[in-house]
Design a protein that fits this description.
Blueprint lengths: L5 H23 L1 H15 L8 E9 L12 H8 L7 E6 L2 E6 L2 E6 L4 E9 L1 H10 L5 H21 L12 H21 L1
Antiparallel strand pairs: 1-5, 2-3, 3-4, 4-5
Helix pairs in contact: 1-5, 2-4
């Protein structure tokens, strides 16, 4: 750029390079950002639902034709309820209660009240995989990529501060937004953790 002062030329070159790197990191980390966003939303609401498993509960009364005196007819009970799962074990929790295990599912029997509670567990495989990545359960090589992602996010956060100049940049609207983004977590830390 002929006739431009060197500081202006450096500033334009620096901002262009920063913008290119910011853009490329954004593209590269697109998938990770989506995975962490979905997993973060799921885990944030863990009090409302189980993000890893879909748990369905069915309750009812046992067939009156079943004899519950003597040894418990586990297979007949499971079939009378309409379960096709194979019995993998059972345990007696007290005098009138039995827990029957059917793979990942379970069937609780109350012989006194002649009631049952069936709990069917199905893995939310994609969400469970996202959560395992987010919570770093894989360890090994994943730690390095995850650390690289964290450093990349740090770079994108800092570089984003310098992409714009003027009233939309750090000295104007961008500065106020950055300040709000820093203050909100500190307010929550102060209110709830101190």
């Amino acid at each position: 750029m002929a006739g431009c002062p060197p500081a202006f030329f450096f500033d334009m070159t620096f901002r262009n390079r920063l913008r290119q790197l910011h853009r490329d990191f954004g593209y590269f980390f697109f998938g990770m950002s989506v995975i962490f966003a979905v997993s973060g939303l799921a885990v944030n609401h863990i009090d409302d639902w189980n993000p890893n498993y879909d748990i369905r509960v069915k309750t009812g009364r046992l067939d009156s034709a079943l004899s519950l005196a003597g040894p418990l007819p586990i297979t007949q009970i499971a079939r009378s309820i309409g379960l096709q799962d194979s019995v993998t074990g059972y345990v007696r929790s007290d005098r009138h209660r039995f827990m029957i295990f059917l793979g990942t599912n379970s069937l609780e029997i109350d012989t006194l009240r002649r009631t049952y509670r069936y709990e069917q567990v199905e893995e939310r495989w994609l969400l469970h995989a996202f959560n395992r990545l987010h919570l770093n359960e894989l360890k090994n090589g994943w730690v390095f990529f995850s650390d690289f992602f964290a450093l990349g996010l740090f770079f994108m956060a800092v570089s984003g501060l310098f992409l714009n100049r003027g009233r939309n940049g750090l000295k104007g609207r961008g500065g106020w937004l950055a300040l709000a983004g820093v203050l909100i977590p500190f307010i929550f830390v102060f209110l709830y953790l101190m």
